[in-house]
Amino acid sequence: MDALILTVMTLLKIVAVLVPLILCVAYLTLAERKVIGSMQVRVGPNRVGFKGLGQPFADVFKLMFKEVIIPTNSSKFLFLTAPILSLAPAVAAWAVIPFADGWAISDANAGLLYVLAMTSIGVYGVIIAGWASNSKYAFLGAMRSAAQIVAYEIAMGFALIGVLMMSGSLNLGDIVRAQSGGFFNWYLFPLFPLAIVYFISGVAETNRAPFDVAEGESEIVAGFHVDYSGMAFALFFLAEYANMIMIAALAAILFLGGWMSPIDGFGDGIHWFLIKTAAMLFIFLWLRATFPRYRYDQIMRLGWKVFIPVTIVWIAVVGFAIYFEVGPWFSSVRGAG
Amino acid sequence: MTFELFVFYLFAAIMIFAASRVISVRNPVHAAMYLVLTFFTCAGIWLLLEAEFLAMTLVLVYVGAVMVLFLFVVMMLDVNVEPMREGFVKYLPVGLLVGLIMLVEMVFLITQRYFKSEQFPIPERASAEGMSNTESLGRLLYSEYLFQFEIAAIILLVAIVAAIALTMRRRPETKYQKPSEQIAANKQDRLRVVQMPSEKRT
């Protein structure tokens, strides 16, 4: 009986996270078009519903009723599995995200590792999609994406090591609690280079502009999802935006103090987490509207030759600072850890 | 049967199935995908053993990085299976012999008196007094097994150096971008403004 109650409660929690997440994804697409529109002095979509608020639903229904075309010489099973492989990890990673103090589906001890593991699985969707469609363009997109994600994942992992050194824990809730006491204690300041590297690597990992060579329209049409249509394409879209929200939420948790208020004790709670995540998401959209696409070799150079050395140097700096208890940020780390 | 046991058998069955498919399936990309499935279910079994750090690392390192590179290479090479199968009959006797020896050795080990599974007590769970899996593992690695850990690290370092040394050769035909030169380019080097009087209409 207890097991049954636990199962039902967990399922309810999952629904309580997933439904708002999917709504957020839907309205993020609208926000993206509106924000980029106003940055380019256009109106953006404004026909469906009040000021275009119905647009996401119009898009979803359109995609749902379109036919899913399977190319003749494709590997059919893998072709249909690929969208699921890309969506499932993007959604599964949300299991350990703490929205407020104690508000997580699973308060896992190895939470950060779990998130890293899940985000690294997401690349399979792209690779398999590119290979299974049996098309040159899709294949090129998949290859680019694989090389890019492997490169940036290392930089991302190293950036997180700094956070682990400061907080002494892999538990996301503990990491947020270690940043309590006003905005001055957020890891954004002592780990500033790592925060920047983390966020840019996150943009690259989600294949967003200016790192979206995997689907570079001008060179390879739409990259790995050229041959996808209808709902299968929508799943890729859903995964990409869920990953974006994920990276933004993680940035808020790891470097901006999660649910903590910027002023100590001034109404901590989920609203701060949401505000911070939304601010990071805005930066995603801002980047897309501002920067031209990177050239492929420049992406590789930035990942391997700039970010990885920067993170390694800063990890060493943090190590020394913690050992010699340099104030104001590193003086209390040793005793706490 | 408890739920835990059921999950174990389920994962074990999937794992054995996937592992056998890795060597029996014809398409190398499918084989690589089955290997991914094997690693993933293996991580699931480790989670059942409450070894969450090792399970996550397995997924992160093998599924997330090693197998991606594997797939990358396998897809790029476009391996043609036919010529590989030609040597099958020729090497079959040798393969069978090696396999047989290995099988005998394994059976010998497991059924002998000293190595029966009953000879070993069921390992007791270490008391996890306020220590997470990661913490206790780190403590062990940096105290009791420090030398082994350092030796492994040095072997890895040597392997990295060797891998880079193998690919570092001069190839004069390749064109490199030199970012420092690209950034250092300025108006004076690239642009020449020519002043000339406008010509009269004839």
Rg of chain A over CA atoms, rounded to whole Å, is: 21 Å
Oligomer: heterodimer
User: Helical residue percent of chain B?
Assistant: over 70%
**Uncertain stretches of chain A:** none
Helix content of chain A: 55-70%
Question: How many strands, what sense, and barrel or not for the largest sheet of chain A?
Answer: none
By secondary-structure content and strand pairing, the structural class of chain B works out as: mainly alpha
User: What is the overall shape of chain A?
Assistant: globular
Termini separation of chain B (Å)?
104 Å
State the largest interface: A-B, 29 and 25 residues
CATH architecture of the largest domain in chain B: Up-down Bundle
Radius of gyration of chain B: 29 Å
What is the CATH fold-level name of the largest domain in chain B?
Four Helix Bundle (Hemerythrin (Met), subunit A)
The total of beta strands of chain B comes to 0
* CATH level 1 class label of the largest domain in chain B: Mainly Alpha
Query: How many strand elements of chain A?
Result: 0
| Structural class computed from helices and strand pairing of chain A | mainly alpha
Mean pLDDT of chain B: 83
Count of runs of 4 or more consecutive helical residues of chain A: 13
How much beta of chain B, percentage-wise?
Answer: under 5%
